[in-house]
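Q: Structure for this?
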Amino acid sequence: MRRYSAFAVAREAARFHSGWERAWRSPAPKKKYDVIIVGAGGHGLATAFYLGKNFGITNVAILEKGWLGGGNTGRNTTIIRSNYLQDPSAALYEKARSLYETMSQDLNYNVMFSPRGVIMLAQTEHEVRGYKRTAHANMLQGVTTEFISPARVKELVPIINIDGPRYPVLGGLWQARGGTARHDAVAWGYARACSDMGMDIIQQCEVTGVRSSGGKVVGVDTSKGAIDCDKLGLVVAGNSGDLANMAGFRLPMESVALQALVSEPIKPCMDVVVMANTVHGYMSQSDKGEMVIGGGTDGFNNYTQRGSFHHVEETVRALVETFPMVSRLKMLRQWGGIVDVTGDRSPVIGKTPLGNCFINAGWGTGGFKAIPGGGWATAELIAKGEPGPLSAEFGMERFIEGRFIDESVAAGVAH
Amino acid sequence: MLILECPYCGVTGEETEFHGGGEAHIKRFGPGSSDADFETYLFMRENPKGVHFERWRHVNGCGKWFHAARCTMTLEVFGTYSAQTFEPPKEIKDAISAKRPGWSWREFS
C-alpha cells in the first residue's frame, strides 16, 4: 500500500493523478478463513482491523451484502461523544472517542475528526437533574464533561433561542472533546488498512445461511458459494435479527427505522454539535455548510431503510423553535437507516448460543461514535473466545440476569 | 405512512392516529416461571424480516388495542384483527398466504 502524504499529493499532481492505487482489493472468496466477519460497516471493519493489529489474525474475510459502509455507517449524523451515565458504557464509548483522536494517523487516512464540542440541551427541570447527574458520573469515570449555564450555551451557539416559550434552554451538558468525523472515511480507512493486512473484503456477497456442526459454527452459505470458517462474527446492525434466525437463536432487540435530513449548504453559523433530546432533534453543520439534522425513530419494526415524512415534520417543527433560522432553510435530502434497539438501549457484544459465533449488535441509534471501541472489544472477544474488560458487561446474558446497562436517558433518541 | 383500520370502531386512519405496541402473541410468564422463560417473554423478540404480527392502539380514536399483520420489508398491511385471540384468524393467514406463497404460521414462544 502506498502511503498517503503531502508528498504523494504533489507527486500525483505532477503526473495527472495517474498513480493512485485502488484503496482496497476486491478478491474472490477463498474456501476457508480463520475468521469471517459478516457486515463491512464501521464496526465490522474495525473488528477485522483490530483482529489484525492487536492479535495478528489476518486470515479474515469481511462479507458485505451491499457495498462497504453503505448501511448505518453511511447514514448516521456523524456525532462522536462519550457522555454516558453507566460505568461500562462510559468506558467503552470513551475508548472509542479517544481512538478517534488518532485515527487519521493510525490508518493513514483522513477521517476528518473534528473535536468541535457537543452540547446536550437541558430544556426541562427533569433534564437539568439528569444531566447534572451525568456530569457528576462522568467526573468519576474520567470523562471530561461539564454542566453549563444558558448564557454559556448562547455564547457557544449564537443562533440558538434560549427563551423559547415551550422549551426554554435551562442549561446544557457540554463535552468539549466530542465532535464529528467523516463517516464514510472511517469505513474506507479501515477497509484500506484491512486490505493492506491481507484480509479479503468481499462486497455484494449476501449471507444466506449459517452452517453449524455439533453446536459450533463451521461456515456460512453466501450468494458467492459456501465459505468455511473457524470463528464467525455477526456485525450487521439492523439485520442482526435476520441473521440470528439463520443461526438458530433469538436476540433481545428489534429493528426500527431512524432517519436524518440535511439542508441546503449555508455559510458557517454553528461550530458545535447541538442535541435537543426533549424535542427529538439534533443538529450540526457539515464542512460543506449543510445543516445535518437527526430525528426520531419510527414506532414499529421496519427493514425498509426509508424515513417517513411526518417524522421530518415533527423534527423540523421542534428545531424551528430552538433555532428560528431553520424556518428559512430548504431541506435537500432525507434518508433512513435500520437500527437494532435493545431493551436497555445498550449494545450487545458477546458470545451467542452457537459456539464460536460472536455478535456485535444492538447499538440502536448510536453506533457510529463507538466504531473503534466496539471493533476493539469485538476483536478481543473473537481472538480470545472470551470477552475482555471493555465488553465484559455487554453480553446477552445480562438480560436473563437482570443486570442492565440502562442508557435510555443518555441514548434517548439523539445520536 | 401506514394506513390501518381499527377492527373495533371501523375507522381507517393514518399511522399518526395509532400507536405501535410491539410484537403480538407473546406468551406471558409471571412469578414462578423459569428465568429463561421470563427473559424470553420480556426481551427476546422475533424481529422478522417479512411478516410480522404486532399490537397497535387506536390512541387518537376509540383507544382500543388491536393486532395487525404487516410486512416489515414492504410495509404492506395484510389486515387487522381483534386482540382477543391467541393466534391470527384464518382470513388473515389466508390473506398473507395469498401474497406470500409458502408462508406458514409458526409457534411463537
